[in-house]
Design a protein that fits this description.
The chain has helices at about 60-80, 135-150, 160-175, 185-195, 205-225, 250-260, 265-275, 280-315, 320-350, 355-365, 375-405, 410-435, 435-440, and strands at about 5-10, 30-35, 40-45, 50-55, 90-95, 100-110, 115. It is of the alpha+beta class.
Length: about 450
């Protein structure tokens, strides 16, 4: 379960009176058995002044005794701190069969936050690092809604469901009018989420409570990731909040990138843009991978065509020319390599646009190196396209040699202007494509 706990040492202070007899403050008789929407059993007391929730096996006498001691300790601590019982407060407490201590946290349904009565080290609880009180509020709200999702016995207030509807309305508009929205779902997904939320009824069923809580978990995490409500809030997805050291590609990678028409450099930049501040937007990753798989598929088809063209030229009997053999052999090797690399990448990333964000993030962390960033994966992703271009160039040289052997010298006067026109056309294309705005 994704919630934070803290250890509560149990005491016999409230358990024994002056005669040494048991005098517990809480008997546990008012706990009612409930079932989560996924089928897990938990127990809750929702009628008393201080609601208590536990998923411990209270039918075990040892566990029940440990829970009684733990809750008594909490009740005494609340009394000593003169906090009393808040109307919206709830205690979650649990223990293990062989444990002598309890794990607990408290929930404030009014402010949608998790809190403790003891000093708590967030890092020791496995909580994400925070930079301010506002940032802390976002992570505590995420934990609160996780609690509500797992224990959905308390209905979600109508105002919170209306707020959630407004969030998705705004996010839907933001996605339709901006290319740099920080919201993790596209406009179509926002519309679907909006249609799931019930705002017609003042009370919610446990199913609707669980649904709304899970959505709020994602919203709270989104606010945490983007420093919602702070001076350094991320307002667009290409905005850096953290300062990262510049990555300078090793000389070998830069040379290899230049040989591959600088396609790897452009590809590495695309990876960096997808993973700014180590945050991945699944919707943009899916679009990127769909476009890459389409490109690899087209590269494979072109490389196959180049192979067929080379085979046709060989069949015409031009293999006796040494220059033809050199350029033709190079074209065939390059096109075969492009075909194989494209097929391998299509196979390796067949499901890349269908896995969850956590799996994709783990993969990006695995292929990103401290010394060259996304340089190597940029080379790999660019290979089918670059090898295809090289195979076409060598095929062009091959055909030029073939035509040079067939054409009469007088015919070159007619072909010269056409050749010059083609060269100038490609020079113009190259000057445009080398612009940074095109390359990005």
């Amino acid at each position: 379960m994704y919630v934070a706990h803290t250890i509560l040492g149990t005491t016999r202070q409230a358990w024994e009176n002056v005669n040494g007899k048991v005098n517990t403050l809480w008997t546990g008789r008012d706990l009612a058995s409930k079932v989560t929407r996924l089928g897990a059993i938990y127990y809750a007391n929702t009628q008393g002044n201080l609601p208590i929730v536990t998923d411990a096996a209270i039918d075990n006498p040892v566990i029940m005794m440990t829970l009684q001691r733990g809750i008594d300790s909490l009740l005494l601590l609340l009394k000593e701190m003169e906090l009393g019982a808040f109307p919206n407060m709830e205690i979650y407490i649990t223990t293990l069969p062989a444990a002598t201590e309890c794990y607990y946290y408290l929930i404030d349904h009014g402010s949608q936050k998790e809190f403790w009565l003891h000093d708590t080290d967030m890092a020791a609880l496995g909580m994400s690092p925070v930079s301010s009180r506002i940032h802390t509020k976002s992570i505590l709200q995420e934990h609160y809604w996780t609690h509500v999702e797992y224990f959905p016995h308390r209905p979600v207030a109508l105002r919170l469901r209306i707020e959630l509807m407004d969030i998705f309305r705004h996010a839907c508009t933001d996605q339709m009018t901006s290319d740099n929205s920080t919201f993790p779902y596209d406009s179509e997904q926002c519309s679907k989420f909006k249609n799931l939320i019930d705002i017609q009824n003042s009370e919610t069923t446990t199913y609707m409570t669980c649904l709304v809580a899970r959505i709020w978990v994602m919203i709270s995490r989104h606010r945490y990731d983007h420093f919602y409500g702070e001076q350094c809030a991320r307002l667009c997805r290409d905005q850096h909040v953290f300062d990262w050291p510049d990555v300078k590609l090793p000389i070998a990678v830069r040379i290899y990138s230049a040989v591959l028409f600088n396609f790897p450099k452009t590809m590495a930049k695309r990876f960096e843009d997808l993973y700014i501040d180590q945050i991945l937007y699944k919707i943009h990753w899916d679009r990127f991978m769909r476009s890459m798989k389409q490109n690899w598929h087209e590269n494979v088809l072109v490389c196959t065509g180049v192979l067929i063209a080379n085979a046709a030229l060989v069949g015409l009997g031009f293999t006796k020319n040494p220059q033809f053999m050199c350029s033709g052999g190079a074209s065939m090797i390059l096109s075969t390599s492009g075909l194989l690399s494209g097929c391998l990448l299509l196979h390796a990333y067949e499901q890349a646009d269908q896995v969850n964000a956590a799996t994709t993030t783990a993969h990006l962390q695995d292929v990103r190196y401290s010394d060259c960033g996304f340089g190597l994966i940029g080379v790999v992703f660019s290979l089918p396209k670059a090898l295809m271009f090289w195979s076409i160039l060598f095929l062009f040289f091959e055909m030029t040699i073939t035509m040079g052997n067939l054409i009469h010298p007088v015919d070159t006067i007619v072909l010269a202007p056409m050749t010059i026109l083609v060269v100038l056309s490609f020079a113009a294309i190259g000057s445009v494509l080398r612009r940074p705005s095109v390359a990005s």
